[in-house]
Amino acid sequence: MKREIKTTNDGSKTLFIRELNENYHSHHGALQEAEHVFIKNGLNLINDCEINILELGFGTGLNVLVTINEYLKTDKNHDTHYFTLEKYPINTSEIENLAYFELFDNPELKNIYQKIHQIEWEKSVEIIKGFNLHKIQCDFFELKNIDLPKINLVYYDCFGARVQPDLWEKPLFEMVSDKMSVNGLLTTYSSKGSVRRILEELHFKVEKKQGPPGKREMINATKL
To answer: What letter would DSSP give residue 17?
Structure first.
């Protein structure tokens, strides 16, 4: 399906699929959403010495970039392994036009942004010292066949249930749960009641949090 580039309310860009009437990120602010959901209410709540992140899905690469930006602010006394799934990678023109590195003050992020998109799929690559990225091109439902270390942080960033309801039902959440460690955290922009009930059935402690700009609530879920 054809994708278009649009500018969101915080000045950052996103991709828009007209046939689905769906954005890759919130039109209220792509960057604000990523930082609020996945950094403030995700990465910054993890204190483990080794962080294994699973992202569904890679999309524009924005979530990887904000995660590395946050990692660069720390004392880097932990290793981070970032696994991200994507069935339909974006193209070179889209990567260049999104230009997410321009949103940050750190000049290092231009080269890092390019490297994120240039590295080979199916290989683990050290993007910067202590931060490894492994991009996997596959359907999300192939997750059960992928060998991963125990995941302690999940970025659940699938397209919305309106356009892909199967991604917000029990079978996929069950696959994700099976890959997670006890006390692992799943964070998502969604606050659907059906999602909360599924996660509780799978023995997660579910907490409603304040949502990013334009959204009242979001979900954090800790695996018990």
So the answer is: E
